[in-house]
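Annotated sample (chain length 883).
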Amino acid sequence: MVENEMRRVNMDLHKSIIERFPVGYAYHKIIRDENNRPCDYEFIEVNSAFENLTGLKRSDILGKNVSEVLPDIKKSAFNWIEFYGNIAINAGVEEFEQFSEPLRRWYQVKVYSPEKGYFITIFSDISNERRQINELELQITQRKLAEDKLRANEELLNASQRLSKVGGWEWNVETQAMYWTEETYRIHDFSPGEMDPGSAKHIKRSAECYEPKDRPVILAVFQRCVEEGQPYDLERPFTTAKGRRLWIRTTAIPVVESGKVIRVIGNIMDITDRKQVEQALRESETRYRKAQELGKVGNWEYNLKTTEFWGSDEAKKMYGFDPTKDNFSVEEVESCIIERERVHQSLVDLIENSKPYNLEFDIITKDTGKIKTFISIAELEKDKAGKPLKVSGVVQDITDRKKMEQLLFREKDQFKTTLLSVGDGIISTDVKGKVLILNPIAEQLTGWRQAEAVGRSSDEVFHIIDEFTRERCDNPAQKVIETGEIIELANHTHLISKDGFERPIEDSAAPIKDEQGNITGVVLVFRDFTEKKKIRDEITYLSFHDHLTGLYNRGFFEAEMERLDTERNLPITIVMGDVNGLKLINDSFGHAAGDELLIRIAKILKKSFRAADIIARVGGDEYAILLPKTDGSEAQKLINRTLELLLKEKVRDLNLSISFGWATKTDLSQTTDLVTKKAEDDMYNNKLFEGPSVRGRVIDSIVATINAKSPREQAHSERVSDLCIAIGEALKFEEGEIKTLKVFGLLHDIGKIAIADDILNKADGLTDKEYNEIKRHSEIGFRILSTANDMSEIADYVLSHHERWDGKGYPKGLAGESIPLPSRICAIADAYDAMTSDRSYRPALTHEFAVAELLKNSGKQFDSELVDIFVEKVLPTLRNRFC
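Output written by the structure step:
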């Protein structure tokens, strides 16, 4: 309550100061577009002086963007939105005079950013001052011609200057004479009689009123104005001849004739009042921020139009964010909240259904990871049409308060109302252990009604036993009364209800003490542990088991290996197994097939080995088996039995295959690491012999699968192989090279095993996505064939058989002779057969059309020399094919 009152008082004080400003005040928020550039700004707060100066009413503009209030602002020659945006984003400060075209007024404006993304304007209407200055300039300019008129207006000018606290002066360059108005003397606290009229001493005496560090600046800008015609406008602290401390604004403009400065006209303005208002505003903001910091209260705002989320510096600090660096978005904030779904839903309910938003929740701070408790209150602001506009809220850190409440909870005597409403079972007893209170949950769990239980022994009502021994547990209430300490119930404690129902429970018993620390009773707090125990058991299971196969994981295997490493378990044999061809099967048939392979192997291992053996999946394709009290001979029998069972199982028409290795520990002096290393070495030696044959069988199976999926593809591969052979013979290739071309032709589309049937056999044109999927087959074929050492050369040819002579092919964009020669040969054979054969999407084209297409793309898609050889030498020998 004190914190809320402090916050309210500070906010009221802040608003009161702003409202009483004699100058216009407006608080804005910059709105950015999708490129993070300022595109508009919103009116958040204005004071009465603002309304009087601008003619704009706060009821008409608050919550609106400036483009709505002043539609012509974006047509203005000066880009106001960009100017204010740069100040708000870069924490800038500017002060200037500017004519507002939409409002047709001159303003003296001070702009600064209190925090990133926001800016404050403090301004006064100086339209009259500008007119007076212009009149003063006109009077000075025409002085020689209208001395009488000047004298007649002199008192009026002096009176105006006194009212506006603006003094005028003129420097005649030719005569080196300086003239001051009465108000200028008054601001300096000089008497007009102290210096001769027109005396240049005016400059020196005026400069002495500035602080020493500012004097060279003042004299330098005055000199530049005289010599170079540069006007100036400065604000500086100022000490009058009588010691009065002021803030003044001094400006000057040159009067030029025939390209030469003949006079300098200026004014000096007492802006002390305005500076004091600005300082009061800064101090108010500082007090407001300090109040937030002391009260641990932060503000936040969520703009529903821009989705921008803003938080005060204190709010950011509370969540553990660096106010100067960290992003403070809705997502970042919600990531800290423990019950983020509940909090997020409350925000949604506020926005969509106008439900009250008053929440207490726990967070984990971003910087330290500490758990804190917050309370947050928010209100929804709507536009005139009743549509949600933004959500504004406050958040308060109540962690210390919560801790105090918990402390008071332990010390208070029998919080009956609390006991009856909490979600745990609670039994309160007196100092003799007699039941005083049962809350509804305790009634439900014990089977005793409050009226039945009161006055009975807690041991009778709270009947607990050990889950395993089935023996009755000690009475926790009696134990607390005897020791005066808080105790936790033992693990595996079960509660037997009045009707005989048994369930696992947890938690604790604590003493109730009076102000002198005397025990007056005991509170038992307990809950049904059934679901939590089930979840804990599941987590325990998952922490020790591989999620895919259900076997033990590496962590459990290593722990068991350490536990069983005792003399009574010798000899201990460690078996290592590595699945052959898993990567190839994953690349060829997909990871689902690979997972099926691993699961089937796991089942066979469990079937082959004994119940006491520890079987684990220790890597992606590696298994380990720990055989206590087992020598090498017995281990080999178990391995042989496993291999026999593997031969009877298939995945995608492939026999399952594992390379095994084993080693036996016969003496405690041998380390398990060394024995494991020997088993792995034995396994890898066996894999060198067994792995290649498995990969060869997988490749054969892939070819058979493709042919089964699409007989048209089989015929196409055979014809391409024949054409490749014919081109090779025309090129006088040796027999070994011809054989390579033959195999290459048969396997060039092996990667299509991973392409969906509906794409391969699609009757109409392919979409861009489907065509890109088809293009993957050359890379997939490369990966498949690369697994077989004797296929590595053909794998390179397969990868490049869709490259083009002009470099526009795929997958690498190779060009010219950088494309392997066999790949260039296959590209011609593949294209020719594709054109002259029936396809799923069109009938076969004529031989003449195909030849014309090859010649058309010679030197572009195809090697021109190979095209000529194919057309002139190969095709004539195969003429019967086209009859």
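Annotation: The first helix runs from residue 2 to 19.
Annotation: The mean pLDDT is 83.
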